[in-house]
Amino acid sequence: MAEQDCPICGQANPEKSETCQKCGANLYWAEIEPGEVISPLANKSPQEQDEARILPGIEDSLPAVPAAFTEPSAPVHPYRLMVSETQKNYVALLEKMTHPDQIQPADLQAAAVRKPRYLLLVWGILLVGILSFSLFWDELQVGIPPIPAEVLAVNRSISKIPAGAPVLVAVDFQPAYTAEMEMASEAVIDQLVAQGTNLVFMSTIPTGFWQAEHLIQKIKADRDLVESAPVNPNYYNLGFISGGALGLANFVNEPYQFIEAQLPTESSASTAGQSASLGNVTSINDFSVIFVLTEDPDTARDWLEQVQPHLRRTPLMMILSAQAEPMVRPYLEMQPAKIQGMLVGIAGGVQYESLSNQVQTARENWTASVLGNILGGLVLGVALTAFLVFQRWNPPAAPAAKEKKP
Amino acid sequence: MTQADWIGAILGLCLTLGVFSYLLGDNRVFRLVIHIFIGVTAAYVLAGSWYSVIFPQLVQPFLSGQDFWNPLALAGIVFTVMLFSKLFPRTSWFGVPVMGLLVGVGAATAIGGAVIGTVFSQVAASIRLFDFLKINTWNAQVWVALVDASLILVGTLVTLFYFQFYIRKQPGSQGSVTGWMKTLRLVGQGFIAVTLGAIFAGVYSAAVAALVGRLATFKEFFTLLFHP
To answer: What is the pLDDT of residue A273?
Structure first.
């Protein structure tokens, strides 16, 4: 039996094979010389060739079937000549991605990132253990940090607010940050309640309504414990103002229309236990102070960009989570400052509590918070040192030499 | 504590322990708790949107009859219906004008606010830091104020240099950042690293505060349980 050698790899293939058994090259097209025209009827018998023509009997007449559309007309290049090893690897990767059913379990095991689960467990137990220990051992106390100017500014502004004056409080933090934000803001809101101000709560996030209710009810419950008669804070919860920055811009222009739209009837306000009188609020500047409680620097920036430029005499104060501080502090430090006072995280709450001497929520948790931060710093430092030492002893392998382009 | 408070406290304790169970690896209890949290959050968002936005601003005016022929209120209803049409592929084109309006007005508001509230004011504040007359009025030591101002200026510039990706390609080479530009970009990288480090520290601190808050509720629960 005659054999056909592959012009690419030299493999001997059976006669009339269309592709090479070794490299897969197309043997039929590999035989064609450049410029040679192959008739689509070349492989047919003489009778079949004659029947297929438009004019049977005339050898050079065109085939009846448009062969240009049924047979390949362009030369097919053997792919081993044109594809580098890197490109083949890419093709293999693409095939794996497009045919996930063909992925072998061994591939998945190699690709999986091996997380040291026991380290996570040890870290979790260590952190929870030390924090719990510090919370339950009341004698363990860490000193109060020095009170910065921005915290003193908040205290000065609140002290000047007369009873009955409206104060806008934007409760713009997500439920996950409730613990930190309430520890930071409780002393401030408590002082505002104690001074008999009219608190107006609002939020640009849908869950803000309940966050505000939770905060004010917590303060009421704490005050009821120490006061002889039940305390009824004067507040008005406007709820959720939709639209983000757009909603804020709208609110700044027409605050009273929002107040009317949110709670239009006196009866509904009294049903909700809200007793603040807001008849004199027609402009954003009618509020004595605006407090923004947020953990999100973007939300803080919305307030600074959409509301602050409209404020003429009303100070804008921020009570922030520790994670938002680095992005918001420039607005406090700039001259003229866009923020007139700021409290940050549990530290801010502790500092303000030391000024007002009423609420002690942040103070009770301050030691645990400091220990948690120190522990995190230590673990990070040890991990970084271990990484550097490991790299020193086991330097990463030099990258492989670049493959020459074909 | 009332009976409801006790039930709430026990539920909170169980759910918190369920989240902590992730330390042992991904498990069904953790997934159940996460599903509960997501479901409750979705329900809160829906209820908040209904009671604070949809009912008082869209439904109530029509029910009361006061705004029945108010063009703005009617426009709100029409735009809402147009937006709902985007739920179905065949009618989604109907909501395109409203989406365009929302995106356009939102972008204009955000850009206007950013330019006036942040870009102009921050640039002006950075320039003002070198104003000797103003430094005296801030009661700050001049040299300290100038060092601060210089640090801010240098930090701003080198950070901007880091994001400079234009490279002049020489004939016969692939082109790369060399010389003084490379040094400036390296310093800029350092400033960015410090900034990201500060943000990471803040995020960690916020997470620790959340954990402390949860553990504090544990303490409160056990204190009430054993010393009511």
So the answer is: 47
Domain that holds residue A48: 1-100
Domain boundary among B25, B51, B68: B68
Considering only CA atoms, which of A242, A249, A245, A205 is closest in space to residue B56?
A242
Whether residue A180 and residue B209 make contact (CB cut-off 8 A), yes or no, is yes
From the list B117, B125, B208, the residue facing A369 with the nearest CB is B208
Considering the domain boundaries, does residue A8 fall inside one?
Answer: yes
Give contacts of A 315-344 with B, CB under 8 A: 321-327, 330, 334-336, 338
* Beta-carbon separation of A321 and B117 below 8 A: no
A185 touches chain B (CB under 8 A): no
Helix (H) / strand (E) element for B199: namely helix B179-226
Q: Is residue B203 less than 8 Å (CB to CB) from chain A? A: yes
- pLDDT at residue B143 tops 90: no
Among A73-82, A216-225, A257-266, B47-56, name the one with the lowest average pLDDT. A73-82
Tell whether A194 and A94 lie within a shared domain: no
Mean pLDDT score of chain A, rounded to an integer? 79
Residues of A in contact with B23 (CB under 8 A): 120-121, 124-125
Tens digit of each residue's pLDDT (9 = 90 or more) over A351-392: 999 988 777 888 888 999 999 999 999 999 998 999 899 888
A179 touches chain B (CB under 8 A): yes
Please check whether residue A25 is in contact with residue A8, taking contact to mean a CB–CB distance below 8 angstroms: yes
Comparing A160-174, A285-299, A337-351, A380-394, which segment has the lowest mean pLDDT? A380-394
Distance (Å) of CA B165 to CA B143, B145, B168, B182: 35, 33, 10, 11
Reported pTM: 0.74
Domain count of the fold of chain B: 2
Q: ipTM of this predicted complex?
A: 0.85
Provide, as residue numbers in chain A, all residues whose Cβ is less than 8 Å from the Cβ of B117. 301, 304-306, 308-309, 338
Q: Which residues of A208-217 are buried (b: 16+ CB within 10 A; e: fewer)?
A: bbbbbbebbe
Q: Are residues B145 and B63 in the same domain?
A: no
**Nearest C-alpha neighbor of A289 from the set A171, A163, A167:** A167
Q: Which residue in the set A208, A246, A264 is minimally distant from B109, CB to CB?
A: A246
Residues A344 and A253 in one domain: yes
pLDDT value of position A90 = 74
Q: Regarding predicted confidence, which is higher, A162 or A69?
A: A162
In a domain? residue A376: no
CB A244 within 8 A of CB A302: yes
A52 plus A157 within the same structural domain: no
Structure tokens at B3: 């009976």
Section A66-77 average pLDDT: 48
The answer to whether A249 faces chain B, any CB pair under 8 Å, is: yes
Same domain, A160 and A56: no
Split into its structural domains, chain A has a count of 2
- Report the residue from A180, A207, A322 with minimal CB separation from B213: A180
Which residues, 6 or more positions from B34, have their beta carbon under 8 angstroms from its beta carbon? Answer: B19
Whether B134 maps to a domain, the answer reads no
Q: Are residues A182 and A328 in the same domain?
A: yes
Domain boundary pick from A40, A75, A100: A100
Asked if A179 lies within 8 A of B214 by C-beta distance, the reply is yes
**CB–CB contact A306 B109 (8 Å):** yes
Which structural domain range is residue B157 located in?
Answer: 141-228
pLDDT at position A67, please?
47
